[in-house]
C-alpha cells in the first residue's frame, strides 16, 4: 500500500528547464507546487575547479545510469529492438536541472515557417511536394503568438546575441550583447558575405557580460574555459535552471523539491488526473502525491513513456495512423558538414564556450527555393568555437594511418590548423517513426522501456548532401588548403554521438484527432494534465530546441493559471 500525502495545487514531474519555469511562474502567483526529481540535488559549487574531461565528457557523470533504465531502438517494425547499453547517439541527463545543466547553451528561436510548416509548404509548392508517409502538420499556433514568450525566456536566461537577419521579427533586442568574435569566426563572416549570405552571432546562454535578469538573479560573465557541453558551469555564466528559475520558485516558500523521487504512474479517474505515484529510490517506499494539476516536465522519452504506462491518452498506431501518444518522433540530421585544413594559419581551438559561434540561415526552413530539390526544410550552417578538449579531439586528414609515425606527425601538424563548418538539419516526421513501450525489456522497477522506431530517410540524405556542399564552399572561401566534405548519410546508427535533440511523442496541434496537447500544452484527453518539453514539437527544426521549449514553457504556465482560475475546462 502506497503512502498517501496531503494534496497540493500542482505536482511537476522532472525539475529541469520546463519544471523550473513552471514552478517559478506558478509559485509567484500563490500556488503550492511539489517538484519530483528522480536524480540528486545539484548546485554551482559542485563544479568549482572541476575541469575533468574524463569524468564528465567521457564517463558521463551527469547522465542517467543505463544499467537501471535505458531505451530500446530499432530501425523498422520488422526487426527486434535492442537496448542502448552504452552512450552513443544522444545523452540522457538526470538530476536537478536535467539537461539544462549539461547543455552547450545554443538558444535559437524556431522560424515562423516551422509553426505553419504544412500550410506554408502547400501554399508555395502544392501538396504533392510533401512525400507519401511524411506527417508534417501545423503546430496550432504561429510564431507571432509565441514571440512574447521567446522574449521572456531570453530575458530570464540573459541570452547574448544579435538579430537574425532571416529570422522572425523580434519585439526587443537580446538582453546582452553577442559573445566575442574570434579570428576564425571573422573569416567565416567575411566568406559568407562574399557569397551574399547572412551571417550573425550565435545566440548564447553563456553570458557575454555580467547580467541581472528581471527576477533579480545576477550572474557572472563567461570565462571562455571551454567546459560547457556535458559539464556544469562553475561560474554560473551558463544559464541553467539551478541558477535561474529554481531559486525564484524556492524563494516564494511555496515550492518543495523532492529529489530521488522516481515517478512511475499518473493516477487518474476518467479524464482527470488525481495525482502521481512515485518511488523514493533511497528507501524503496511507494508514495502517492495527490494534486489538482499534474504537469509532466521531464525529457521527451520520459513524458511519452509515463503517459503510455499510465494509460492516459490514445497510443499511436503506425498501421492506421490513428492515436497520438508516441506520434511524430523526430531526431536531428547532424551529418552535412566539412572540415578545412590550413597550412599557413594557426588557431587556438581549445579556448571557447559552448555557444560561441557564428551562424547563417540562408539554407534553413524555407528561406531558399525547394522547387527543384528533393527535400523540405534545411539547416543552420555554423562555425563554433566550443573548446576542443584534448582527449576527444585529434583531427587528421583522411587517409592518415590511425597509428604510427605519419599519424603522430599529422596530429601535431594539424592540432591547431583545422576548422569545421557544420550543418544542423531539420528532422521531419514520418508515419513509421514513433515511440511505444517495449514488450520485452524493462527497467529496474519492472516497468517497460520506451522503444524508438526510427531511421534516416531519403529526405535526410538529400538534405545532408546539399548542406555539406554549402559548408565546403564556405571553407574554401575561408582559405582552407584542403577541404573534406562529409555529406554521405547512411542508415541511422545509434552508436556514435550525434545530438541530444530528440523531439515529439506528445505533439501539439489544433485538433485532438492529430495532436496530444493544445497550444497551451494541455492534454485534450485529460484537462488537468499539461505536458511540457520538446515532446510537444510536431517536427524538429534546423536548430537546437531549448529556446523554443523555454518559450512554450512560459506559455504553458500562463495556461495553467488560466485553467486554475477558471475552475476547469480547456484553455483557449
SSE diagram, text form:
Layout: E1 3-4, E2 8-13, H1 17-28, E3 33-36, H2 53-58, E4 71-74, E5 82-83, H3 99-102, H4 112-115, H5 117-125, H6 143-157, H7 183-194, E6 199-201, E7 211-212, E8 218-219, H8 245-251, E9 255-258, E10 261-269, E11 272-280, E12 286-296, H9 300-309, E13 327-330, E14 337-341, E15 357-360, E16 379-384, H10 405-414, E17 418-425, E18 434-442, E19 448-453, H11 458-477, E20 482-486, E21 503-505, E22 522-523, E23 526-531, H12 546-566
Parallel strand pairs: 1-12, 2-3, 2-12, 3-9, 4-19, 12-23
Antiparallel strand pairs: 4-5, 6-15, 7-8, 10-11, 11-12, 13-21, 14-17, 14-20, 15-16, 16-17, 18-19, 22-23
Helix pairs in contact: 1-8, 1-12, 6-12
Structural description of this entry:
Belongs to the GMC oxidoreductase family. Keywords: FAD, Flavoprotein, Oxidoreductase. Pfam families: GMC_oxred_C, GMC_oxred_N. By secondary structure, this protein is an alpha/beta fold. It is built from 12 helices and 23 strands. It has helices at 17-28, 53-58, 99-102, 112-115, 117-125, 143-157, 183-194, 245-251, 300-309, 405-414, 458-477, 546-566, and strands spanning 3-4, 8-13, 33-36, 71-74, 82-83, 199-201, 211-212, 218-219, 255-258, 261-269, 272-280, 286-296, 327-330, 337-341, 357-360, 379-384, 418-425, 434-442, 448-453, 482-486, 503-505, 522-523, 526-531. Strands 1, 2, 3, 9, 10, 11, 12, 22 and 23 form a 9-stranded mixed β-sheet that branches. Strands 6-15-16-17-14-20 form a 6-stranded antiparallel β-sheet. A 4-stranded mixed β-sheet has the order 5-4-19-18, with helices on one face. The longest helix has 21 residues, at 546-566. The two termini are 39 Å apart. The mean pLDDT is 96.
Amino acid at each position: 500500500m502506497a503512502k498517501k500525502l496531503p494534496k497540493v495545487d500542482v505536482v511537476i514531474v522532472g525539475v529541469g528547464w520546463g519544471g523550473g519555469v513552471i514552478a517559478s511562474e506558478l509559485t509567484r502567483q500563490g500556488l503550492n507546487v511539489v517538484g519530483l526529481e528522480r536524480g540528486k540535488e545539484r548546485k554551482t559549487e559542485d563544479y568549482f575547479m572541476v575541469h575533468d574531461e574524463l569524468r564528465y565528457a567521457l564517463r558521463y557523470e551527469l547522465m542517467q545510469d543505463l544499467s537501471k533504465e535505458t531505451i530500446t531502438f530499432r530501425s523498422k517494425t520488422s526487426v527486434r529492438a535492442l537496448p542502448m547499453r552504452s552512450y552513443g547517439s544522444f545523452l540522457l541527463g538526470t538530476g536537478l536541472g536535467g539537461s539544462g545543466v549539461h547543455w552547450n547553451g545554443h538558444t535559437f528561436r524556431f522560424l515562423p515557417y516551422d509553426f505553419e510548416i504544412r500550410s506554408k509548404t502547400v501554399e508555395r509548392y502544392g501538396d504533392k511536394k510533401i512525400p507519401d508517409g511524411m506527417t508534417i502538420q501545423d503546430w496550432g499556433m504561429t510564431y507571432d503568438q509565441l514571440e512574447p514568450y521567446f522574449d521572456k525566456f531570453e530575458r530570464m536566461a540573459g541570452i547574448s546575441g544579435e538579430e537574425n537577419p532571416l529570422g522572425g521579427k523580434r519585439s526587443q533586442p537580446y538582453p546582452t550583447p553577442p559573445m566575442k568574435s574570434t579570428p576564425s569566426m571573422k573569416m567565416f563572416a567575411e566568406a559568407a558575405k562574399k557569397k551574399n549570405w547572412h551571417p550573425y552571432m550565435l545566440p548564447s546562454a553563456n553570458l557575454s557580460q555580467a547580467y541581472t535578469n528581471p527576477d533579480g538573479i545576477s550572474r557572472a560573465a563567461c570565462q571562455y574555459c571551454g567546459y560547457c557541453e556535458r559539464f556544469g558551469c562553475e561560474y554560473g555564466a551558463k544559464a541553467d535552471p539551478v541558477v535561474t528559475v529554481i531559486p525564484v520558485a524556492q524563494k516564494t516558500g511555496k515550492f518543495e523539491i523532492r529529489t530521488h523521487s522516481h515517478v512511475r504512474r499518473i493516477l487518474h479517474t476518467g479524464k482527470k488526473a488525481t495525482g502521481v505515484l512515485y518511488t523514493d529510490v533511497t528507501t524503496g517506499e511507494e508514495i502517492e502525491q495527490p494534486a489538482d494539476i499534474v504537469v509532466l516536465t521531464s525529457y521527451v522519452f520520459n513524458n511519452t513513456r509515463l503517459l503510455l504506462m499510465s494509460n492516459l491518452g490514445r497510443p499511436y498506431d503506425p498501421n492506421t495512423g490513428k492515436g497520438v501518444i508516441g506520434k511524430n518522433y523526430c531526431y536531428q540530421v547532424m551529418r552535412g558538414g566539412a572540415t578545412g585544413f590550413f597550412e599557413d594559419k594557426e588557431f587556438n581551438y581549445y579556448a571557447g564556450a559552448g555557444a560561441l559561434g557564428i551562424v547563417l540561415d540562408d539554407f534553413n526552413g524555407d528561406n531558399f527555393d525547394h522547387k527543384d530539390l528533393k527535400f523540405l526544410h534545411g539547416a543552420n550552417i555554423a562555425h563554433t568555437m566550443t573548446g576542443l578538449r584534448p582527449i576527444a579531439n585529434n583531427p587528421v586528414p583522411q587517409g592518415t594511418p590511425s597509428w604510427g609515425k605519419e599519424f603522430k606527425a599529422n596530429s601535431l601538424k594539424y592540432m591547431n590548423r583545422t576548422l569545421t563548418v557544420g550543418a544542423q538539419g531539420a528532422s521531419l516526421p514520418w508515419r513509421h517513426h514513433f515511440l511505444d513501450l517495449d514488450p520485452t525489456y524493462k527497467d529496474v522497477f519492472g516497468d517497460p522501456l520506451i522503444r524508438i522506431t526510427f531511421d534516416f530517410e531519403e529526405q535526410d540524405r538529400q538534405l545532408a548532401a546539399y548542406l555539406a556542399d554549402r559548408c565546403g564552399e564556405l571553407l574554401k572561401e575561408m582559405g582552407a588548403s584542403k577541404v573534406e566534405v562529409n555529406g554521405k548519410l547512411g542508415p541511422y546508427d545509434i552508436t556514435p554521438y550525434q545530438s541530444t535533440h530528440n523531439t515529439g511523442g506528445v505533439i501539439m496541434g489544433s485538433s485532438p484527432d492529430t495532436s496530444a496537447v493544445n497550444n497551451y500544452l494541455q492534454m485534450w484527453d485529460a484537462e488537468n494534465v499539461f505536458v511540457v518539453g520538446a515532446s510537444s514539437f510536431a517536427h524538429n527544426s534546423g536548430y537546437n530546441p531549448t529556446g523554443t521549449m523555454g518559450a512554450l514553457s512560459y506559455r504553458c504556465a500562463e495556461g495553467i493559471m488560466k485553467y486554475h482560475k477558471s475552475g476547469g475546462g480547456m484553455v483557449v
